[in-house]
Write a structure and sequence with these properties.
2 copies of one chain form a homodimer.
Chain A lengths: L1 E5 L2 H13 L5 E5 L5 E3 L2 E3 L1 H10 L17 H6 L12 H15 L4 H11 L5 E4 L6 E6 L2 E4 H7 L6 E7 L10 H7 L2 E4 L4 H10 L3 H7 L4 E4 L2 E2 L2 E2 L4 H7 L6 H7 L6 E5 L6 H6 L3 E5 L6 H14 L5
Parallel strand pairs in A: 1-2, 1-9, 2-5, 9-10, 10-13, 13-14
Antiparallel strand pairs in A: 3-4, 6-7, 6-8, 11-12
Helix pairs in contact in A: 1-2, 1-13, 4-5
Chain lengths: ~300, ~300
């Protein structure tokens, strides 16, 4: 079994790649829930949903979130009542949020809800939230403290980040199965997600960072920085804001002590020595997952780095 | 000012008729909320919504409820999670329910929520729920106690009703403005709604029946029974189940002591003497509201019976 730490879009793409070369039941994903928030009275869990929809083949390919071809009729109608509608939820997507919100109201833990939704979508990869407790990623930007989605979606990820914190993380416990999935893994993979904003919250849950730091199995991250640019906002803004260089060596520094190897894109090959100096063995591959062939190639490179036989 | 007691479909039609001949601000509607219930985690208030949508010109003309041309994409998606979807809510309609549910969660009384939604839809008629307190119409049918919507929508109104009760009515208080609207009315009108299932809950709220019984102004009901059939289910089933004849005299008996006159359809003219014997002055009109002309004609007949000058 391999265990993958992941956020939403980058996480879902790596999981899709891995699921193309490994049986789904060999993959456990520990998913960021620091972006979770309440919108329109609904509990929304962006990263687990993106992953679920993507693994089910139903994610909207243009937006990268939500369901393919979804409409937004309910949201347009909500404007009539004067509500902010900058956080978009499609008509079909909304059923997921209502289902989750009802289960939460019934006291069902988030980990069971995520498993239930993944099951309903026919997803075979095991999805675990980092915690059943509420952890909120708060971005300090331009002097304001903003919840992650407010910063990313409403403010369009401005480049003036001075701090990221994870409210509630200190008191949170890793969700059932998370520490066991790290302990039992034959390899630990960190997806090409935002190292600060998406992987950071997972590592902030007490016990998870220590478990990974202590793991005796191969630990491989995939760099989300390609040619000095982040694949998804706001990884670059956050790295820069916290004083890390926006490049593969910067990613290696964020993961210092947690990874043995960093898969970097061939466009960043010149950074290999600096990655090595930051403590991670650099592995050069093509990291963009644009089609089946590139997905398989990256997955095989990651598994080779992790010494996992598909 | 005239005050109209009403349920959903029949109530909305009479209100539309009255609003065609009277300024909207002269009309106050006291609306049944005994059908209100929770569906899919949302607080749904069927009769106030039907009336709001109808007065806004947005009700779906085929279904008689919901918004014109609405789609049901979210509901189809909800099936994936194994939920019952017999209670239909459209995509645009759902925005209303989410808005209401959020306001309820914030502790806003139902009367303010209904006014807010009516305002958002540009409705000028004043809409008051019968009560801000929860009253649930429970139909005993085939030995089972069923909430109203379960009986009507899920079970398709079977003809084996033995009892109707209004749970919570004893402890409910009339909503702010309701008793004042009865006291200040120049006439009290009872819409051609289900006398037992829609008007019954309003009359069950302590103080309302007594206020109408004691009112010194004209009190006029419009019969929902036309040619021995009810305009909407399940009025006939409920009248029969409770031992009333399914005809205009049966309606007059239900309203004994509460009305001075009953407007009956010309197809029921032969029942006029029995209506009179049941204590209400019979007024023969065409009661079907099928077009602007018939709506205006009925409204003028009702206002004439109530001695109200348009």
């Amino acid at each position: 079994m391999i265990t993958v730490l992941c956020g939403g879009v980058g996480g879902s793409r790596l999981l899709l790649s891995l699921a193309a070369v490994l049986p789904a039941e060999r993959i456990t994903a520990i998913v960021n829930t620091g972006d979770d928030d309440w919108f329109h009275g609904l509990y929304v869990s962006p990263d687990p949903d993106i992953i679920t929809y993507a693994l089910a083949g139903e994610v909207d390919p243009e937006r990268g979130w939500g369901l393919r071809g979804d409409t937004f009729r309910w949201l347009e109608s909500l404007r009539r009542f004067g509500h902010d509608t900058w956080f978009q939820i499609g008509d079909r997507d909304l059923a997921t949020h209502l289902h989750r919100t009802r289960l939460m109201g019934d006291g069902v833990p988030l980990s069971e809800i995520i498993a239930d939704i993944a099951h309903a979508f026919g997803v075979g990869v095991r999805l675990l939230p980092m915690s059943d407790d509420r952890v909120r990623t708060i971005v300090t930007s331009g002097g304001e403290d903003l919840p992650f989605q407010e910063y990313l979606v409403h403010r369009h990820a401005p480049d003036n980040v001075t701090q990221i914190r994870f409210d509630g993380a200190d008191a949170a416990r890793a969700a059932p199965g998370v520490l066991a999935a790290i302990a039992a893994a034959e390899a630990i993979i960190i997806a090409p997600s935002n190292p600060i904003g998406s992987i950071g919250p997972i590592l902030a849950v007490p016990g998870i960072r220590d478990a990974i730091a202590a793991a005796a199995v191969p630990r491989v991250a995939v760099s989300p920085i390609v040619g000095g640019r982040s694949l998804q906002p706001p990884a670059a803004e956050m790295l820069r804001g916290l004083g890390f260089p926006v490049d593969a060596p910067g990613v290696a520094r964020v993961y210092a002590g947690l990874i043995d190897a960093l898969v970097i894109d061939e466009s960043d090959a010149a950074d290999a020595a600096r990655v090595e100096a930051a403590g991670a063995r650099p592995l050069i591959s093509r990291t963009l997952m644009r089609d089946d062939a590139s997905r398989r190639a990256l997955a095989l490179a990651v598994l080779a780095a992790a010494r996992v036989t598909p």
